[in-house]
């Protein structure tokens, strides 16, 4: 049936409804719904409810590149004191790496350790003030990495894998919980004054997650975030 054969059609929508068994109206409804969905902005960083009630208001994660060894801080090794000055036992096999060939004499920590607080946590004399707060701190001494090379070990600390390309811990947190701030980045990174660590951007990258969940680097100086302003000589229209 053609439009000129329809009796008293008063609108285009009525034409679509009454012609071709209404298939035109079905197509129009789909097109309008598609356009409406495209125009609806979904904020990927909107706050999301956690699976379990939150017990902490905020978390500050400090990754100490080149920080002091835990052997000198919280994790004394009595066996090092026993075998100090000796070579590695033969049971370790031939240790070949960029750091030692296995014939370097063992050295224990030069600092003294004492137990503190009700928990009895051992802390060296390097940190006398922190020793008074051990009952308020959770010490985890079971973490390890599967690589002695700095960059892969950093990737494993931040992403759980020794290979780059996986989402960092901050990216997963932002992906799962969103952000309560609408004017600040949800996940920020403050590198050391010397620059980024050996692992580089993959330490705070989003991996296979959308790029909106990667960390935003705060740099020292008057422009902590790059590319927020157009280059000199460029107008707002880019001409």
Could you characterize what this model shows?
The protein is mostly helical and 239 residues long. The protein has 2 domains: 68-143, no CATH class; 145-239, no CATH class. It has helices at residues 12-18, 23-39, 78-82, 150-159, 169-177; strands at 113-116, 121-124, 188-189, 216-217. It has a two-stranded antiparallel ribbon with strand order 1-2. A two-stranded parallel ribbon has the order 3-4. Helix 1 (12-18) packs across helix 2 (23-39). The radius of gyration is 30 Å and the shape is elongated. The mean pLDDT is 83.
Key words describing this protein structure:
2 domains; two-stranded parallel ribbon; 239 residues; elongated; two-stranded antiparallel sheet; 5% strand; 5 helices; mainly alpha; 4 strands
| Rg calc | 30 Å
> What is the number of domains?
2
* Amino- and carboxy-terminal Cα gap: 54 Å
Strand content: 5-15%
Helix content: 10-25%
Could you give the order of strands across the largest sheet? 1-2
Question: What's the tally of helices?
Answer: 5
Topology, number of strands: 4
The main pleated sheet reads as: 2 strands, antiparallel
What's the order of the H and E elements? Answer: HHHEEHHEE
Mean pLDDT across all amino acids: 83
Structural class: mainly alpha
Would you identify the regions where 5 or more consecutive residues have pLDDT less than 50? none
Overall spatial form = elongated
């Amino acid at each position: 049936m053609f439009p000129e054969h329809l009796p008293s059609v008063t609108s285009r929508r009525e034409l679509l409804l009454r012609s071709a068994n209404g298939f035109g109206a079905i197509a129009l409804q789909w097109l309008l719904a598609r356009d409406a969905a495209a125009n609806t902005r979904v904020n990927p960083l909107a706050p999301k409810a956690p699976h379990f009630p939150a017990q902490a208001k905020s978390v500050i994660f400090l990754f100490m590149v080149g920080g002091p060894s835990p052997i000198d801080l919280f994790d004394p090794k009595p066996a090092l004191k026993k075998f100090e000055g000796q070579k590695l036992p033969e049971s370790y096999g031939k240790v070949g790496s960029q750091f030692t060939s296995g014939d370097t004499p063992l050295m224990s920590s030069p600092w003294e350790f004492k137990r503190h607080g009700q928990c009895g946590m051992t802390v060296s004399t390097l940190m006398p003030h922190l020793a008074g707060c051990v009952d308020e701190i959770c010490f985890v001494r079971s973490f390890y990495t599967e690589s002695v090379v700095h960059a892969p070990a950093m990737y494993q600390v931040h992403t759980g894998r020794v290979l780059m390309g996986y989402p960092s811990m901050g990216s997963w947190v932002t992906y799962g919980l969103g952000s309560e701030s609408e004017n600040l980045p949800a996940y920020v990174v403050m590198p050391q004054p010397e620059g980024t660590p050996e692992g580089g951007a993959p330490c705070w990258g989003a991996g296979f997650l959308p790029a909106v969940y990667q960390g935003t680097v705060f740099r020292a100086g008057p422009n902590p975030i790059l590319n927020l302003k157009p280059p000199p000589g460029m107008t707002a229209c880019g001409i």
